[in-house]
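Ticket opened by: R.M.
Priority: normal
Category: complex prediction / small molecule

The reporter submitted a protein together with zinc ion and asked that the result be attached to this ticket for the collaborator who will pick it up next week. Submitted input follows.
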Amino acid sequence: MIRFTILKESARSRARAGILETPHGIVETPALVPVATQGAIKALTIDRVYDAKTEILIANTYHLHLRPGEKTIGKAGGLHHFMNWQKPLMTDSGGFQVFSLGFGEDHGVGKVLAKKRKKIISTGDQPKKLTITEDGVAFRSSLDGREVFLGPKESIDIQESLGADIMFSFDECTSPLADRAYVKKSLERTHRWIKASLRARRSRAALYGIVQGSHFKDLRQKSAAFANSLDFDGFGIGGDLGTGKDVTKSILSWTVPILDKRKPRHLLGIGKLDDLALIIKGGADTFDCIVPTRYARHGIAFTSKGKLNMAQRKFLSDTAPLDPKCRCTVCATHKRNYISHLYRAGEISALSLLTFHNLFYYHTVIESIRQKIKNGKL
Ligand SMILES: [Zn+2]
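Result attached by the on-call engineer:
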């Protein structure tokens, strides 16, 4: 089980600083939860993940179910042991991958739309590659084509075999292109699924109830009230999160006041550097985001002077560290010229160096936000 203690609540916003206690140690919140999709932070060994000041990770149920399978991980002593990660761990429900593999892939969209687009998904529509029924989602494995079925019970069973400290209830993450009628119907199903997830739990692991409802205010509020009425240990606010940060801000402002404030709130899949203050002020205690690690693999370093693209030729003659103000070991020992050379030459160490710095940098920015909350400045 988990215990959440609020240390300081902001008088200026819904931000709060707290301590999330789990059987594998504590997390100071607000906190970034880096994404270990397949049980690893891409490009880093686990000792480097610790060194980058990471306190908690989230792994993906969908990916680990397909490969190597929860039985293999269970036999290895659970995911903590398998990865040799001894700190807190979350697993998602698989609901987001179902969206991503379904309508997300059909229409080439993620959980945030870059620009407004016409709603093209309505009641009765099904994605090409999977079938959504009242019981769950059937699809073929992208690895070997075998049929897979994922519903609330299956998701919880898999997550319990993985053995994370915090699990998420199974939901349908709707597409930003879904119209109101589709979202309304999907939400009713998601509500049945999150309730069934709670019933399926047999372990003492914490379970968060997921709030959906897309960018429709009344549906979000209804969903928050429903999740709040059940015996969850915390809440996950899921996407789609509309057309950008204004919508994310609105969604938080509609849902957070309804949720029991003594329970932790996790924002699923959001956390661009520019949005951190906004989502923390909106009341998110934790949030997972692939941005720091994925951008690193595309040559991007986050710095106090903005994003730097190490693919650019100009960095070959730049003898400064990635960020002169950063106290990470990469910035202490390497210069932009070398990292740019490694990246341009396709050396895999470039990806490790950039991933490490970006994670450390993100955690440092969030540390300072945490401090501002404690000092009453945010
Ligand atoms: Zn650094």
